[in-house]
Design goal:
Structural class of chain A: alpha/beta
Helix content of chain B: 40-55%
CATH class of the largest domain in chain A: Alpha Beta
Structural class of chain B: alpha/beta
Shape of chain B: globular
Radius of gyration of chain B: 25 Å
Number of domains of chain A: 2
Oligomer: heterodimer
Distance between the termini of chain A: 21 Å
Helix content of chain A: 25-40%
Number of domains of chain B: 4
Largest sheet of chain A: 6 strands, mixed
CATH class of the largest domain in chain B: Mainly Alpha
Number of strands of chain A: 13
Strand order of the largest sheet of chain A: 10-9-8-13-11-12
C-alpha cells in the first residue's frame, strides 16, 4: 500500500500534538527580530514572541522557508513514503508555495511531490492538512489526495478579527482590508481569507460584537465538519468562544489553537479567529 | 414606541418642520390684525402699476426676503424645542432656487412677467426641498401657467394666478387634506378673487390674499387634529403667509425689513404640516393591489387634463403630473399593459418601472423633478455648483483609501450613502463602510434631488440610503422611484442608528439581505443627544427654559437642566447603561473631545463593564450625539 506523507508549514498553526498524532510534517517559516532569526514554532513559541514584541522597539518581519529546507524535508520523507502532498499557505500571502514547488522539481527523480496551494492560512490550512492526513490514512494515493484537497480547499474558511489593523498594514498583507485603514473609529474589523487574500467582511467595534460575528459566520454555513478557535493572547476568551461553538458543532470537532509567531506578526496581539471546514461529500 | 410620545416623529416625521409653536404665545397670527389695510394707503404710482418682468422679479425677491428673514426664527420655534431641520429652511431654499433661476433671465424675455414666472416655477421645482418645498413649487407652477401670456400682471391677473396656484397645489396630492398649506393658499386665492371683483388694484389684491392666507392659517388647528393636539398652526402655511406678505410689502412700495420689524413674522404662527403629509403616505399605502406602475410620456400637444383623467380612471392612487409635452404617471393598476398601451398613443414612453405590490407601495405623491433634471442636467449642475450647498457623496475608489485619510472604500457590492452633518460624523460613517456622505441632517435637509444625485454618481448599481434623521426618511423614500438603480432605504433616524446599520452590512451579502439586516440592527442602538432649548416649553411633562440643556433619548425629551453633564448623565441613565457594551460620544462643533473627558470618566466609573469612546463629531447644535449599544 502506498504511503503518502503530508507536509504543511508553520502558518497552519497546528498544535504540535495534533500534527504529531496525524503524522503531519510541519516546515517552519522564519521570524526576524532585527538580525535574529527564529524558526516559527521551533525555537520561538507564541508566548516568547509576544514577550519579545513587547520589549522590542522594532517590529518583527517574516520570511518563507528556503527551498533547501523543503528539499531536505522531502528527501527525508522519501525514505519511508511513496509520495508527498505538501499543502501550504496561500501563494498570495507568502512565497512558501513557490519554495515548495522549486523543491518538488529538485526531488522529482526521487519522489513524487504534489504541492497544493490552500488559498487560505492558519488553522483553515491546518484543517486541510488534517484532511489530507485522513485521506492518506484511507489509502488514497498522492495525486488523488492532492486533487481532493484542491477541491475541498474552498470549503475551508478562515475568519478573524484584529485588535488593530497596524500589524496587517505594516506586514503588507492587508489586501482589500486596506479600505479599513484611516478609520477614525477604533474598529475590530472582521476579516476573511478568501481566494487567498484578506478581505474585509464586516466592521465591528467591540470584541464582544466581533466574537458574535464569528459565531454568526459559522451559523451561516450549511454544514460544519470541524472547527478551530484561534487566539494568541486571550485563552479565556478562546475557551468561551469554543464553548459557544460546541453548542452548534459536535464537541469533539471544536479545537482551540494558538496563532503562531508568523501569523501573529501579521495580525498582532489580541487577534482571534475561527477556522472552519465545511463537510464535504465523502 | 408610540408615535405621539416620539417628539420628532410625531411632529416632524415627514417634513423638517419642528417649527411649531403654541398658539397662545403672543396672541398668534390668528388673533392679530392683518397687514396695514392698503385702502388706507392708496400707494404710489409705482405701487399701482401692473407688475412687468422686473417688477415680478422684485416682488418674488421681497417674498424670498420675507421668508428668509423669518427662517431662523421659524426654525427656532418648535413645539419640541430643539434646533432641528425645518420648514423655514426648506421653503427658503426652495424660494432661493426659484429666485436664482428667474434672476438669470436675460434679454427681452426678462421684461415679460409670464417669462419670469415660468423661470420662478422652474427654479422652485428644481430646488424643491422637503415636502413643503414640493408643494410650494406647485403653487408657483400654477401661478406661472396662469400668467404665461402676460407681459404684466395687474390685480385681476394676480387673483386669477393665485386661483390657479391653488388648483395646482391641490392637484399635487391625490387626496388633499385640509389644515395644511393647501388650506392657506386656498384662503389667499378666495380672498384675492373676491377683492379683485370690487377693487382691481394690485395692492388691494395682494393685501387681501395675505389676509386670506392668515385667516386660513388660523383655522388649520380646527381642521387637522394633530395640529390641535399640538396647539399649533401649520408651518408650511405660515411660510405661504410670509411669501404673500413679502409681495404685499413690495406692492405697497415698502422696503424689505428685518424679520422682527415686519408685521407678518409673529413667531406664534408656525406649525407642523407633517400630519397632513403623513396621511398622504398612509392613505397611499392603503390600496395595495395590483401593480405599481410608473412611467413618463414625452409627446407634443398632449391634452393634459384629458389624459390625466383617463389614465386616473384606469386604476387607483394615481399621481399624474406634467404638461402638454411630458407626463409623469404613477398609478396602481391590475393590468399595466393597458395603461402603457394608452400612454403610447400620447407619445414616447420612458422610465417605465412596474412593481408587483406585495409588501409595500412606494409613495410617490408629487415627484416630478427628474424629468427636468434630464432635460436640463447641465445647467442644473452649474447651478448646483454655484449654490455650493451640498457635496453629494462620491464613491471613493479602494486605491484612494490607501492613504491614511478617512476615505474608506465601499464594502462590496453596494454603495452605502449616508446623510450627516459634521465632518467627524461623516468620517465615522465612512469608517463603518459608508461609501458616500451627503451633507445634511438636523439643520439642513437635503433635497430629493441631492439624494438622487448622490445615487446617480455612485459606482454601484445597488445603493443603500441611510437618512440618519427622521426628517429625511420620507425624502429618501422617494428616491427609489426616481432611478433605474436598485435603491433600498434603511430608515435610520440618527447617526448612531446609521452606524449600527452599517455594522450589520456584509460585504458579500445581497442587497435585500443586507437591507433587512441593517433595518433589524437599527433597534440595537439607542441615541442620546444633548442640545439646548431654543425657547421655553413644556414637553412630556418636562419643563425647560430657553438656553437650558436638554437631553433626548431616541428623540424624546427625557431630561433638562442647567448643567450639561448632569443632563447628559440623566439621559444616559434613561438609556439603560447597565446593559450597554459600548458608548460612543460624538462631540459637537467647537467642542473638543477632551471636554467630554469628565463624561467619559463618569460613565466608566459608574459602569465598569462599558467601553466608552469619544470622538469629534463636529455636528452643529448638538453638544453630544451619543450611541449606546
Amino acid at each position: 500500500m502506498a504511503r503518502v506523507a503530508i507536509v504543511t508549514d508553520s502558518t497552519a498553526d497546528l498544535p504540535p500534538e495534533i500534527a504529531r498524532r496525524a503524522g503531519i510534517t510541519v516546515v517552519p517559516l522564519n521570524v526576524h527580530f532585527g538580525d535574529e532569526v527564529f524558526r516559527d514554532g521551533v525555537d520561538l513559541t507564541t508566548g516568547d514572541f509576544l514577550r519579545r514584541l513587547g520589549s522590542s522597539d522594532r517590529l518583527p518581519t517574516t520570511s518563507q522557508p528556503s527551498a533547501g529546507l523543503f528539499t531536505e524535508t522531502y528527501r527525508r520523507l522519501a525514505t519511508d513514503h511513496d509520495a508527498i502532498v505538501s499543502v501550504h499557505i496561500s501563494g498570495k500571502l507568502s512565497g512558501t508555495v513557490g519554495a515548495a514547488t522549486i523543491a518538488r522539481d529538485d526531488v522529482a527523480s526521487e519522489v513524487a511531490v504534489e504541492v497544493v496551494d490552500s488559498a487560505t492560512a492558519s488553522m483553515a490550512l491546518g484543517l486541510l492538512a488534517l484532511r489530507g492526513a485522513a485521506l492518506a490514512e484511507e489509502g488514497l494515493d498522492g495525486s488523488a489526495i492532492a486533487a481532493r484537497l484542491r477541491a475541498e480547499a474552498p470549503g475551508h474558511h478562515m475568519v478573524f478579527f484584529v485588535d488593530t489593523l497596524e500589524y496587517l498594514r505594516r506586514g503588507g498583507r492587508i489586501g482589500a482590508a486596506r479600505a479599513l485603514l484611516g478609520s477614525i473609529l477604533d474598529l475590530k474589523p472582521i476579516l476573511r481569507v478568501e481566494d487567498g487574500v484578506i478581505v474585509p467582511l464586516e466592521r465591528t467595534r467591540t470584541r464582544v460584537r466581533a466574537r458574535r460575528s464569528l459565531v454568526g459566520f459559522v451559523r451561516g454555513l450549511p454544514t460544519v465538519a470541524r472547527l478551530a478557535v484561534l487566539h494568541n493572547s486571550t485563552p479565556d476568551e478562546a475557551r468561551e468562544l469554543a464553548d459557544e461553538f460546541r453548542l452548534i458543532v459536535p464537541r469533539d470537532e471544536v479545537l482551540i489553537a494558538e496563532m503562531g509567531p508568523v501569523i501573529d506578526t501579521h495580525v498582532g496581539p489580541g487577534a482571534m479567529g475561527v477556522a472552519v471546514a465545511e463537510r464535504m461529500e465523502p | 414606541m408610540s408615535r405621539r410620545g416620539h417628539a420628532k416623529d410625531a411632529l416632524t416625521a415627514t417634513e423638517p418642520s419642528p417649527a411649531v409653536a403654541p398658539l397662545a404665545t403672543n396672541g398668534g397670527t390668528a388673533h392679530r390684525e392683518g397687514p396695514p389695510d392698503p385702502r388706507d394707503d392708496p400707494g404710489t404710482a409705482a405701487a399701482t402699476a401692473p407688475w412687468d418682468g422686473p417688477a415680478l422679479l422684485a416682488a418674488v425677491t421681497a417674498a424670498t426676503d420675507a421668508l428668509t428673514a423669518n427662517r431662523d426664527r421659524i426654525n427656532a420655534l418648535n413645539v419640541f424645542p430643539v434646533p432641528d431641520g425645518d420648514t423655514g429652511t426648506n421653503m427658503g431654499l426652495t424660494m432661493r432656487a426659484a429666485l436664482d433661476e428667474a434672476a438669470a433671465l436675460r434679454g427681452p424675455a426678462a421684461a415679460r412677467a409670464g417669462e419670469v414666472a415660468a423661470k420662478v416655477a422652474y427654479g422652485a421645482l428644481m430646488g424643491a426641498r422637503g415636502n413643503s418645498g414640493v408643494i410650494l413649487s406647485q403653487i408657483f407652477r400654477g401661478f406661472a401657467r396662469a400668467v404665461a401670456d402676460e407681459d404684466a400682471i395687474d390685480g385681476p391677473a394676480l387673483a386669477a394666478a393665485l386661483v390657479q396656484a391653488r388648483e395646482m397645489a391641490y392637484k399635487a396630492v391625490m387626496r388633499p387634506v385640509e389644515g395644511t398649506m393647501l388650506t392657506v393658499i386656498r384662503g389667499a386665492a378666495e380672498r384675492a378673487a373676491a377683492r379683485a371683483a370690487v377693487d382691481p388694484s394690485l395692492v388691494g389684491v395682494i393685501g387681501a390674499a395675505t389676509e386670506g392666507a392668515e385667516a386660513a392659517l388660523a383655522t388649520t388647528p380646527d381642521l387637522l387634529d394633530i395640529l390641535r393636539q399640538a396647539g399649533v398652526v401649520d408651518a408650511g402655511g405660515q411660510g405661504v403667509v410670509h411669501i404673500l406678505a413679502g409681495m404685499a410689502r413690495y406692492a405697497r412700495g415698502e422696503a424689505s425689513v428685518p424679520a422682527d420689524a415686519t408685521g407678518t413674522t409673529d413667531p406664534a404662527a408656525v406649525g407642523a404640516e407633517m400630519a397632513f403629509l403623513d396621511k398622504v403616505e398612509e392613505l397611499h399605502g392603503e390600496d395595495i393591489f395590483g401593480y405599481c406602475t410608473n412611467f413618463m410620456v414625452f409627446g407634443e400637444r398632449i391634452d393634459f387634463e384629458r389624459s390625466r383623467a383617463e389614465l386616473a380612471a384606469m386604476g387607483e392612487s394615481a399621481v399624474i403630473v406634467g404638461d402638454d409635452t411630458v407626463l409623469k404617471v404613477h398609478i396602481h393598476v391590475l393590468n399595466p399593459g393597458m395603461v402603457l398601451d394608452y400612454a403610447l398613443r400620447l407619445g414616447e414612453l420612458g422610465q417605465i418601472k412596474i412593481d408587483n405590490m406585495q409588501a409595500q407601495t412606494r409613495a410617490l405623491s408629487d415627484q416630478r423633478g427628474e424629468r427636468r433634471e434630464q432635460q436640463h442636467e447641465q445647467r442644473h449642475e452649474q447651478r448646483h455648483e454655484a449654490a455650493q450647498q451640498t457635496s453629494a457623496g462620491r464613491p471613493v475608489p479602494a486605491v484612494a483609501a490607501a492613504s491614511d485619510t478617512a476615505a474608506v472604500a465601499p464594502l462590496g457590492r453596494q454603495a452605502i450613502l449616508a446623510v450627516a452633518a459634521g465632518d467627524g460624523l461623516g468620517e465615522a460613517l465612512r469608517s463603518m463602510g459608508a461609501s458616500g456622505i451627503i451633507r445634511g441632517g438636523q439643520t439642513m435637509n437635503p433635497s430629493i434631488e441631492e439624494l438622487l444625485d448622490a445615487v446617480t454618481v455612485a459606482e454601484q448599481d445597488e445603493v443603500i440610503l441611510l437618512p440618519n434623521n427622521p426628517n429625511i426618511v420620507l425624502t429618501a423614500n422617494h428616491v427609489p422611484e426616481l432611478t433605474s438603480k436598485r435603491v433600498r432605504v434603511v430608515p435610520s433616524r440618527s447617526v448612531p442608528q446609521g452606524l449600527a446599520a452599517l455594522a450589520a452590512h456584509q460585504s458579500d451579502g445581497d442587497l435585500d439581505a443586507n437591507a433587512a439586516a441593517m433595518v433589524a440592527a437599527l433597534a440595537s442602538v439607542r441615541t442620546v443627544e444633548l442640545t439646548r432649548a431654543v425657547r421655553d416649553a413644556t414637553i412630556n411633562g418636562v419643563a425647560v427654559r430657553a438656553g437650558q440643556a436638554i437631553g433626548l433619548l431616541d428623540d424624546v425629551l427625557v431630561a433638562s437642566g442647567d448643567d450639561d453633564d448632569a443632563v447628559t448623565g440623566a439621559a444616559l441613565a434613561e438609556a439603560g447603561l447597565d446593559d450597554a457594551e459600548l458608548v460612543t460620544v460624538f462631540t459637537g462643533e467647537g467642542i473638543a473631545p477632551e471636554q467630554a473627558e469628565t463624561l467619559r470618566a463618569t460613565i466608566a466609573a459608574d459602569h465598569p463593564g462599558v467601553e466608552v469612546e469619544v470622538y469629534a463629531g463636529g455636528q452643529p447644535h448638538y453638544r453630544y450625539v451619543i450611541a449606546v449599544e
